[in-house]
Amino acid sequence: MPGLLLGDEAPNFEADTTHGRIRFHDFLGDSWGILFSHPRDFTPVCTTELGRAAKLAPEFGKRNVKMIALSIDDVSDHLAWSKDINAYNGDEPTEKLPFPIIADAKRELSIQLGMLDPDERDKKGMPLTARVVFVFGPDKKLKLSILYPATTGRNFDEILRVVDSLQLTAKNKVATPVDWKRGDRVMVIPNVPDDEAKKLFPEGVFTKELPSGKKYLRYTPQP
């Protein structure tokens, strides 16, 4: 099945959405982008996910990230479903969400992007889309891919966290350790010599002593 690998450029597809027809590269512009797929409209887990995505949309906006969803129903269903999503959030049940939803009723885009879940099917026996998250950089290339089965809802706080990491590490010669959160200390990447690290990170580089004697655990405050 076709799909995207890290470093691949996003296909410049055209699609109908709840915000009108788009061409994907034009939609992204110079921003980061998140494309996340959903098995079907009017389903319980998807509704909670889109509700949370809508609540976090201002935070993604602060990070220059454009969000776009995909589901295998048509625009009219998406618009009606949007009312339920807003009502779930306790907001006015309008058809407007802070991001568009792509209509992929024929599953053409889902197939192109490798989003179908072979184990989850509709009443007609057609495969549903899995819960895929693609994060694209301003260069339109895939920076992160997460794949969940239809039965497991995503954690959008985690998606926001990994965006923080991706953006930080794209600009600085650092990596983020386990459970890192914005503002925590980071790690100097192994290919940066100690002399260079001292110049790059004037707030200091702190090395963890290990039984091996190897000095590869080097920490520094977040740049």
UniProtKB/TrEMBL annotation:
- Signal peptide per UniProt: none
Q: Where in this chain does the record put each Thioredoxin domain?
A: 4-168
UniProt keywords, alphabetically: Antioxidant, Multifunctional enzyme, Oxidoreductase, Peroxidase, Redox-active center
Q: Is NAD a UniProt keyword of this protein?
A: no
Cellular component terms (Gene Ontology): cytosol; mitochondrion
Q: Which GO terms describe its biological process?
A: cell redox homeostasis
User: What CDD domains does the record point to?
Assistant: PRX_1cys
Q: Where is the active site?
A: C46
- EC number of the protein: 1.11.1.27, 2.3.1.23, 3.1.1.4
Cited function? Thiol-specific peroxidase that catalyzes the reduction of hydrogen peroxide and organic hydroperoxides to water and alcohols, respectively.
Does Oxidoreductase appear among the keywords?
A: yes
Q: Which InterPro entries match?
A: AhpC/TSA (IPR000866), Peroxiredoxin_AhpC-typ (IPR024706), Peroxiredoxin_C (IPR019479), PRX_1cys (IPR045020), Thioredoxin-like_sf (IPR036249), Thioredoxin_domain (IPR013766)
Q: Which family does it belong to?
A: Belongs to the peroxiredoxin family. Prx6 subfamily.
User: What does the record give under GO molecular function?
Assistant: 1-acylglycerophosphocholine O-acyltransferase activity; peroxiredoxin activity; phospholipase A2 activity
What name has this protein been given in UniProt?
Peroxiredoxin-6
PANTHER family in UniProt: MCG48959-RELATED, PEROXIREDOXIN-6
Known catalytic reactions: 1-hexadecanoyl-sn-glycero-3-phosphocholine + hexadecanoyl-CoA = 1,2-dihexadecanoyl-sn-glycero-3-phosphocholine + CoA; a 1-acyl-sn-glycero-3-phosphocholine + an acyl-CoA = a 1,2-diacyl-sn-glycero-3-phosphocholine + CoA; 1,2-dihexadecanoyl-sn-glycero-3-phosphocholine + H2O = 1-hexadecanoyl-sn-glycero-3-phosphocholine + hexadecanoate + H(+); a hydroperoxide + 2 glutathione = an alcohol + glutathione disulfide + H2O
